[in-house]
Amino acid sequence: MSIFEKRRGTLVPVHPDNANTRDWLVLLEAATIVGQQRDKLRVALTTQDRTLVKKRRLFRKPEHFLVIDGYDPRIHALYFCPQLYKNENGSLVPLSGPEIGDLMAQALEGGAIEKPPWYEPRDSVPKDLVIKAAPNMELDSLVVDAPSAKPNKPAPLRAVKIDDKDK
Q1: Between the CA of residue 23 and those of 48, 83, 103, what are the distances in Å?
Q2: Which residue among 23, 51, 52, 91 is least packed, with the fewest CB closer than 10 Å?
């Protein structure tokens, strides 16, 4: 990538301590699923690969940014998570990225705000976050059960009136 080439994606500011870690990057999406039976949060992206951009200004500390394609602060929340393990028959098995994302979505679902997913062209980016952490929520000691399997329920059938002249 040359100096004058435009970067693809959105620059998301991150703390310098999180810039060079190998933790999982989990991008959660809120208020985009519609319908009666739905989850408030959806895992949009889980990865350990990242593109980091460092912006330097004269007489200031460098600023660190992640390049994330399609990031929108209206619907996305970005989290970092270390590698998690589950205990299977006395041995520790590392969880995959989507499993970690599902656990985080399940743990943070109570803090997701309910709002319509649309906005007017003149609306600016909201100041409040998509996911508000409860004051008593402490993620350092959070215990999450494995996500339960969702039963596949058939779509409810509805009665359709048949006209007598079609017979």
Answers
A1: 6, 7, 15
A2: 91
Q: Which pLDDT value is given to residue 99?
A: 92
What is the Cα–Cα distance from 69 to 77, expressed in whole angstroms? 14
pLDDT at 157: 46
For 132-135, which contacts have Cβ atoms below 8 Å and span 24 or more sequence positions?
A: 133/108, 134/110
**What global pTM score does this model have?**
0.68
Whole-number pLDDT of residue 142: 54
